[in-house]
Amino acid sequence: MKTDTRRSGKISGYFLINYINDLVLSLRCLCLCTRPSHATIRGIDPAQLKYLINSSLILLFGLLHTADGIVTYFGLKFNYATEVNPVLLFFAGTMGLGLAIFALKLLCVEFIALLYVTRRNIGSCWGTATLFSADAFYSWVVSNNIFLVLGV
User: Fold this and answer.
1) What is the pLDDT of the chain when averaged over all its residues?
2) DSSP letters along 27-69, please?
3) Are 72 and 83 in contact (CB under 8 A)?
4) C-beta separation of 138 from 65 below 8 A
5) Residue 57 to residue 125: CA distance in whole angstroms
6) pLDDT range class, residue 151, cuts 50, 70, 90
7) Count of H helices and E strands in the chain?
């Protein structure tokens, strides 16, 4: 019985190591954009490719924030869900729900616009990886809110 326990631990460890290796390889692909190279990828300079990737990730983040504001408004307006954000609850109690969501999302979108304007300063692959992680997390948040509103 001890061999079965060790074998299952080895198998789960093997899958964990493969998952970590895949994650590291995907981050290396993001880092390829920052390496100085004379080769082009499908006719696009690597620096230009990094610029395009960062631009699209920032724009996607802005669209996700806008979608989150719309879904949150409908979910709270028609009592499909309850809000757990204490900042939004405070401002909704003082300014009203629609104005509070609009003001907070406008502040977020202004920050994203500032990030978009200064996107050429994102030099490392970790900045691109952070943008990708933020988009992935916020995609989950928006999809979760949609499921809550729809009652799925």
Assistant:
1) 77
2) HHHHHGGGS--S--BTTB-HHHHHHHHHHHHHHHHHHHHHHHH
3) yes
4) yes
5) 13
6) confident
7) 5, 0
Question: What are 97's two structure tokens?
Answer: 């729900």
Segment 63-90, tens digit of pLDDT: 999 999 999 888 888 877 788 888 988 9
Backbone CA torsion sign across 79, 83, 89, 95: negative
Q: What is the mean pLDDT of residues 21-35?
A: 56
> Residues 108, 109, 115, 117: what is their CA dihedral angle, to the nearest 10 degrees?
-150
User: Which residue is listed with tokens 């004379």?
Assistant: 38
Tokens of 102: 């609009």
pLDDT in tens, 115-140: 888 877 777 788 888 889 999 999 99
